[in-house]
From TrEMBL:
It comes from the Bacteria. InterPro entries: NAD(P)-bd_dom_sf, ODC_Mu_crystall, ODC_N. This is Ornithine cyclodeaminase. Transmembrane segments: none annotated. It comes from Aurantimonas marianensis.
C-alpha cells in the first residue's frame, strides 16, 4: 500500500524580496545579523557532516554566474548567484541570487527564497563571525575601503557582533561614501570620511576591503598595514580578482573557508598552492588557534562558501515560519496517483 503523502506537500514557502525586507526589519537588522551568525557558527561546528565542493562557475569577460550546493545529509541547499561588476553602470545590481532548501529523504523543496539581500547579510555575518575569533581584543575602529552595496551590511554586522562603532570610509567614488554615511546615520556610528585608502586605515584595528572590479588590484599595500591588524578581505572572490599586495599575505596568518575554492578565487591565488592557511571552521570548533597575541596580523580571505548560504536559508526557513512574510507557491505536481501525471494534465482541461 502506498503511503499517503503529507498534506499540501506541493506548496512551497517563497520569500520574495519584499518579504525578505519586511522580515529583516521586523526582526531588526542587528538581531537578524547576530542570529544569522549563530546559525553559521553552529553549522561550522558540524563541518564534517556537509558535502563540500567548490562552487560551479561560468566565467565571462563581463562577470560570473555560479551554483553553490551543499547538504548535511538531511537537508540539501543551493544558491544561484552572479557577480557582474559592470552592472551598476547600467542601473543593475552587481550581485543577485536566489536559493532553495530541499528534503534529502524525498527531494521535495521546502523553501525558495530571494538571496540578493540575504547574501549581503550572510557575507557580513560571516565576516563579523570570523573577526570575533581573529580581530584584536577590544577593537573599536574599522576602515571600510569600498563603500558599495555591501558596506553598510559589514558595518552593521561588526557593530552587532563586535561592538564596532567607529568607521573610517573610503571609496574612489565620493558619492558612494556619502551614500554609506547617509544610510548609517542614526545607527550609532562615529564616521570619518577619508580621501584615500592610506588615510582610511589610520588608527583602525580592522580593515575591510570590499571593492567590486574584476581585476588584479592593490587596494592595500604592505606599508599601509601595521602589525596587530585584522584584515577582512571580501572583494577578491574569483580568479583574476584580488585586493591585497602579495607581501601582506606573506606576513599574515591567513584564515579561509574552504581551501580548494579559496586557492582559486581568493587573495591566496597569488601564492603557491601549498602556502599554509587555516580553515576558519577549525578555529570555531576549537581545533586550531585564531588570534594568538596582540602583534599578530590576521587575514580572513573571504570568498563565500555554500555552507554559509545553507545556514542563511536554514535561518530564514525557521524565522519566517511564524510570520506572514512569505507566499505559498504551487510548485510541485501532486496527482492523486503518483503514476498518473498525464491524467492530471488532462483533468486540468476538464476543470477549465
Amino acid at each position: 500500500m502506498t503511503a499517503k503523502p503529507p498534506k499540501n506537500i506541493n506548496i512551497v514557502p517563497f520569500v520574495s524580496v519584499d518579504n525578505m525586507m519586511k522580515l529583516v526589519l521586523g526582526v531588526g537588522v542587528e538581531t537578524f545579523l547576530r542570529e544569522l551568525a549563530d546559525y553559521i557558527e553552529a553549522d561550522f561546528r558540524r563541518w564534517d557532516l556537509f558535502d563540500k565542493t567548490p562552487r560551479i562557475a561560468s566565467h565571462s569577460a563581463e562577470g560570473v554566474i555560479e551554483l553553490m550546493p551543499t547538504s548535511d545529509g538531511e537537508v540539501y541547499g543551493f544558491k544561484y548567484v552572479n557577480g557582474h561588476p559592470k552592472n551598476f553602470r547600467e542601473g543593475l545590481q552587481t550581485v543577485t541570487g536566489f536559493g532553495v532548501l530541499s528534503r534529502v529523504d524525498n527531494g521535495y523543496p521546502v523553501l525558495l527564497s530571494e538571496m540578493t539581500i540575504l547574501t549581503a547579510l550572510r557575507t557580513a555575518a560571516t565576516s563579523a563571525l570570523a573577526a570575533k575569533y581573529l580581530a584584536p581584543r577590544g577593537a573599536g575602529c574599522m576602515a571600510i575601503i569600498g563603500n558599495g552595496a555591501q558596506s553598510e551590511f559589514q558595518a552593521m554586522a561588526f557593530k552587532a557582533l563586535l561592538g564596532i562603532t567607529k568607521l573610517r570610509l573610503y571609496d574612489i567614488d565620493p558619492a558612494a561614501i556619502e551614500k554609506c554615511v547617509r544610510n548609517l546615520a542614526g545607527k550609532g556610528f562615529e564616521i570619518v570620511r577619508c580621501d584615500s585608502a592610506e588615510t582610511a586605515v589610520e588608527g583602525a584595528q580592522i580593515i575591510t576591503t570590499v571593492t567590486a572590479d574584476k581585476q588584479y588590484a592593490t587596494i592595500l599595500t604592505d606599508n599601509m598595514v601595521g602589525s596587530g591588524i585584522h584584515i577582512n578581505a571580501v572583494g577578491g572572490d574569483c580568479p583574476g580578482k584580488t585586493e591585497l599586495h602579495k607581501d601582506i599575505l606573506l606576513r599574515s596568518d591567513i584564515f579561509v573557508e574552504y581551501p580548494p575554492q579559496t586557492r582559486v578565487e581568493g587573495e591566496i591565488q597569488q601564492l603557491p598552492g601549498d602556502h599554509p592557511v587555516t580553515e576558519l571552521w577549525t578555529v570555531i570548533a576549537g581545533e586550531a588557534v585564531g588570534r594568538r597575541d596582540a602583534g599578530q596580523t590576521t587575514l580572513f580571505d573571504s570568498v563565500g562558501f555554500a555552507i554559509e548560504d545553507f545556514s542563511a536559508l536554514r535561518y530564514v526557513r525557521d524565522k519566517v515560519a511564524s510570520t506572514t512574510f512569505f507566499d505559498r507557491l504551487d510548485m510541485i505536481a501532486d496527482p492523486n496517483d503518483p503514476r498518473d501525471l498525464f491524467g492530471m494534465v488532462l483533468r486540468a482541461d476538464k476543470a477549465a
